[in-house]
Amino acid sequence: MDDNACQGYEDEIQALEEEIKLLTEKYEEIQQESTFFSEEEILKSMKSFQRETQGESQGHRSPSDLKAQLESLEADLSFLMKLTGLQFTSHSKKTVEKTRDRTVQKHRLSGNCHSLSFQLEFQLQEMQSKEKVSSVVTDLNIIMECGEDSGVSKFVSSVEEHGNLVMFFRSLSTYAEWYEHRRRTFLHFK
Predict the structure, then answer these.
(1) Which long-range CB contacts under 8 A does 93-101 form with residues at least 24 apart?
(2) pLDDT at residue 61 above 80?
(3) How far from chain centre, in Å, is Cα 150?
């Protein structure tokens, strides 16, 4: 073989090694971002975030104040879960794109509302202008067992089309509560 051919192969090998290195770094970054969180980890994260924001806005507090605040937050969370029936069992988040004024993240959520389970996949686009941050939900995909209830499947399709998560959770809470009442009533007559 002549030296030009060997040099060409060596250049190609070096380029492939650099590409492998970049892909390995990207893979490790994605693995770190797309971890699944249990309900306990979500609660710990919420408590930690609340402590940080309270500490920044009100200075340092005594441990007894923090413990009282934590108990209050746990009571509030428990009340909201009882009121709405919503319980999130897992969540994962992956950053798809990040620029100076725009961030796109892909979220996966699963949980249940009373006895109905659900899974959501969506992208959250956050755009930041001078003084305002706006968020838009796109590519919403909802997985739910609707059975033969065509009204629920139409509703899910409508929510997916409009990307309205607030409407989904409000309606799901009400529907699941009445679904549970109907189920118990029919069990009573069987």
Answers:
(1) 93/33, 93/34, 94/30, 94/33, 94/34, 95/33, 96/123, 101/127, 101/128, 101/129
(2) no
(3) 27
| pLDDT range class, residue 183, cuts 50, 70, 90 | confident
| Side chain identity at residue 186, one-letter code | F
111 and 92 Cβ atoms separated by less than 8 Å: no
Closest CA to 34 of 100, 112, 102, 105: 105
Instruction: Convert the chain into a string of H (helix), E (strand) and C (coil).
Output: CCHHHHHHHHHHHHHHHHHHHHHHHHHHHHHHHCCCECHHHHHHHHHHHHHHHHHHHHCCCCHHHHHHHHHHHHHHHHHHHHHHCEEEEEEEEEEEEECCCEEEEEEEEEEEECCEEEEEEEEEEEEECCCCEEEEEEEEEEEECCCCCHHHHHHHHHHHHHCCHHHHHHHHHHHHHHHHHHHHHHHHHC
Structure tokens at 125: 């686009």
Instruction: Locate the domains of the chain by residue range.
Output: 6-52, 85-189
Calculate ∠ Cα 164-166-167, nearest 5°: 70
The structure's pTM equals 0.56
